[in-house]
Structures are given as C-alpha cells and as structure tokens.
Amino acid sequence: MRNRSRLLLFCLAAFAAHAVATTLPESCGNDKVKFNVSHSSAPAGVGLAEPGKAQVIFIESLDTNARCIGCEITARIGVDGNWAGADKGNSYFVASIDPGTHNLCANWQSVNGYLKNKVAMASLSAESGKTYYYKVNVSLASYAFDLVPVTEDEAKFRLKNASLSVAKASK
C-alpha cells in the first residue's frame, strides 16, 4: 500500500510539473487558440500606420540550413495577452497597436510539449505613427526560437523574400 501511495504522489507531481511547464506567459494569448496560416503575395499596408496608432511588422525567418521540405513553423504572436496573429515559414504580418508600452510574445505552435514550450518575449514602447519591426528567428537545426527587434533596413531586405501570412484562429 505504501508503494502505491508513493507511485500516486509521483504521478501527480509529474502531471502538475507538466501542466506548469506548458503555461504560457501573460504577454501571449490563450494556448487553446490555434492558427491555420496561408500565404498571400499581396502587400499588407507596410509602413502605413493607422491614424493614432503604431504599426508592428512581425517577420518570421526560418533557418535555411535545415534540410527539411514542408517544415514551416507556425509562430503565434501575442501582444499584451492577446494573439495578434501568426507567421508560418518565411512570412510576415502587420499589427496595429495603441501608443504606449507593450509586452510581446512569440510561441512555437506545436502539439509536441518540448516545442510548444518554445516562447520568446520582448517589450516595445510604441509611438503613434511609427512602424516597428520584429523578427521571429526559427532554427530547425537547433530548435532555437527568438523574438528580436530589427532595423528598418534589415526588415525591408527580409520583406522582399517574404509572403504575407493570413492567419485564421480556431479553438
């Protein structure tokens, strides 16, 4: 009976650790929301912030050293606790945000627990009328995942070879 109790406690502890490990930071969105992403060649108003808003362009950059056909990664992007959209492969999308300080989150959308825990965070102090660029770095070779601000020059260079992500959320 004592061994069963220990086994039960061990299983409960392992389950609790797994549940905690898959909890996303507050800057992300609801983990139950998944995105289906398609691509479009139509430009998405890059550089044209809405009046009274700032614009953020999120560009996914997939490591080209990986030799994997059809291995595009879907990266969900959250702003202040809500999903703003998603990228897949070498693509981008544009989000309008209010001026002020914002917490950003990128999460590797996956059913695999190890990859699902890949989260990157950044912060942004946005001003009305300005455009900001962030790159989601994805490496399939090392499973590295990061969210970093980039210059306008680098962003323009990357956007030349990127397609527009069109993300549809589902639960």
Q: Which percent range describes the beta-strand content? A: 35-45%
Uncertain segments: 5-21
Q: How does the helix and strand content classify structurally?
A: alpha+beta
Number of beta-strand segments: 10
Average residue pLDDT: 83
Q: What is the rounded distance between the termini?
A: 42 Å
Sequence of strands across the biggest β-sheet: 1-10-5-2-8-9
Tally of alpha and pi helices: 3
**Overall structural domain count:** 1
What's the helix-strand series?
HEEEEEEHEEEHE
Written overview of the protein:
The longest helix is centred in the first third of the chain and has 20 residues, at 2-21. The protein has helices spanning 2-21, 113-116, 152-160; strands at 34-40, 54-62, 74-79, 82-88, 91-97, 100-108, 119-126, 131-139, 144-149, 163-170. The chain has one domain (25-170). The strands form 2 sheets. A 6-stranded mixed β-sheet has the order 1-10-5-2-8-9, with helices on one face. The model is unreliable at 5-21 (pLDDT under 50). It is globular and about 40 Å long. It contains 3 helices and 10 strands; from the N terminus they run H-E-E-E-E-E-E-H-E-E-E-H-E. By secondary structure, it is α+β, with helices and mostly antiparallel strands.
Secondary-structure map:
Layout: H1 2-21, E1 34-40, E2 54-62, E3 74-79, E4 82-88, E5 91-97, E6 100-108, H2 113-116, E7 119-126, E8 131-139, E9 144-149, H3 152-160, E10 163-170
Parallel strand pairs: 2-8, 5-10
Antiparallel strand pairs: 1-10, 2-5, 3-4, 3-6, 6-7, 8-9
